[in-house]
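Here is one chain, start to finish.
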Amino acid sequence: MKKTINLYKTIAAVGCLLLTVVACEKDFSTIESEIEGIKDFTTAGKVFPSIMYDKKLEPVQTNGLPSNLLGIYFDKIYGRTTANIVTQVVPSNFEFNFGEDPKVESVYLSIPYYSRVDGSDSEGNNTYVLDSTFGSNDTYKLSVYQNNYFLRDFDPGTDLTEPQKFYSNANETINFDNYTGELLFEDDSYIPSNNPTIITEYNEETDTEEEISRSAPSLRVQMFNPGDFWDNLFFFNTASPGSQTELSNANNFKNYFRGLYFKVEDLSGGQGNMAMLDFSQGTIVVNYSSTISTGFDDEGNPIEGRDERKITMNFSGNRLNTIENSDSVKNLINTATSNTDTNNGDTNVYLKGGEGSFAVIDLFSGNMEDDEGVSVPALDYFKGKKGKWLINEANLVLYVNQNEVNNSGQEPDRVIIYDLKNNTPIVDYFLDPTVSTTNPLYSRVNYSEKLKRDGNNKGLKYKFRLTEHINNILLRDSTNLKLGVFVTTNINLTQNASVLNVPDEKLSNGSVLSPRSTVLHGSNPSVPDTKKVKFEIFYTEPNNN
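Its structure:
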């Protein structure tokens, strides 16, 4: 029996060896088919010319985003950017049973921040740190108004066949300040907090407020009820509130109550702060009571019993950001992009998210010396290596101009590179296995490395791997298309957002949602060679001596 087992082990080992040999034979055959006359291999790297220059982003589409920015961001390079929000609000269902004589008791708005657990307190409760916050920790004025401007679903300019697009400059084209209704909340010194959201309830027996739930940090505030606003919204002051057509379905309700306008203002002259909010999990809860019994006490005084009920509304309708750049932001971007050198590339290249700017990169642009020392077009030289080179790796390195950047700790950790013709990330993005949905900062880091910083936390460089993109140009005759480099707050967010009046231009939602910026060294001859954009290809070729 023991000999039989050993025999089986030997057969298995031989089988594995044969499989390995066959696999190696296949790999070798593939390599040999791509490189003619292979005998010995040598590996090398070569730097190819490329140019990089600025391009301005016109107002960008801000509805249909997975999250929204709220607050004031002060950038030491560019200046101030303000983000407001306009959103529709819809009841979670329309099967109302208001009971008798309903009256609103309180209304709470709750919208989560993005956060993560970073420990626990002395009682074992989770403590949190906020993610996706930008800038300083200065306060600003936050006001929440009733919005009276209707956010339509479809564009009448397309005969209502395409969804309506709203853009970052909506406060210039619409100006929601002209459509404000009742003031429903106001705080002159608002600032996001990393404290957990604690909900309490009054206990009549103990005459105290008791904690009934605890959750991650959120913008949670009690809303005003001026002139019985919320009672009137649900027709509580009428004989039959549940029969109103405005409360019969979502479309009727959105036209009747057109939502909320979150407006931020700088009162202190400080640097403000900006945070990303998860409206998909946000709610407005209207707590109300209804009569369940009436009668008299022993002394003949009237008494009334009431039960507690609630209406939950969510933000499932249209929602948009207005992004307002200060004059200093506009002037810097306009100056940089109006002097663009598309032949040699710019000296400095300015990247800013949202309604900002991005970099255009043209690989293989220019001449280089061929193997005989003759100056030839770089792309022709590269394509001449088809069947002679195997591409091991192709890298693009972009260097931060540390003399221009003074945003220590606020520089964008991630940038994304796009095929500008097809408005999609390059193929290497999709082939990168390092995908993380729970921590996007470390997602797809093979394709696009996180910003490398120096000992003073100042950015040094960004690095992209373009290996398969370059292989497609060499082996499959793909077109050498221009690429775009954009700031992004989340490299996983690649759904396209439109650019106003530029139909062929798109950017990712992750770029729309980033207020951050940086300045890169470009490709202009005035840039030192050690700081210029560097496009390098590492390859294997035969040694036929």
